[in-house]
TrEMBL record:
InterPro entries attached to this UniProt entry: Csp_YhjQ (IPR005560), YHJQ-like (IPR044543)
Full protein name: Four-helix bundle copper-binding protein
Signal peptide: none
Length: 132
């Protein structure tokens, strides 16, 4: 089962016949990115060195990704300008999280940075497909 399929089943999407695949990809990545960032933050908290900035950055990124997911899932009504801005904000926060994680030589940070970069790319692509 995929979130893309769930979005496609929304009555408004079925009626219009238009599924925004880039938005589905962004929602999918943001969902996973949020969980990966939470896991990375938890792992960073267990490291022996001070990882407080990475914990904060990952936690903030997780929250922004969760909010972006919720906005991206809504197909009833419209609020395209807010969605565009949220996708752009999510991309910037993910890039900042990736940059912070890349400062550390921990496997969990490397994996987190990778998903953050992928999420940022998909959010930018999705924002380009939405017309206010």
């Amino acid at each position: 089962m995929s979130i893309r399929k769930m979005i496609a089943l929304h009555p408004d999407v079925k009626k219009s016949g238009h599924v925004n695949d880039p938005l589905g990809d962004a929602v999918h990545h943001a969902m996973y990115c949020a969980k990966m960032c939470l896991s990375c933050a938890d792992a960073c908290a267990a490291e022996r060195m001070d990882m407080s900035q990475c914990v904060r950055t990952c936690s903030d990124c997780a929250d922004v990704c969760e909010a972006t997911t919720r906005l991206g899932l809504r197909r009833t009504g419209s609020n395209e300008q807010i969605l565009i801005e949220m996708l752009g904000f999510c991309a910037r926060v993910c890039e900042a999280c990736a940059a912070e994680c890349e400062k550390h030589d921990h496997d969990h940070c490397k994996l987190c940075a990778q998903i953050c970069r992928e999420c940022a790319e998909d959010c930018r692509k999705a924002a380009e497909t939405i017309t206010p």
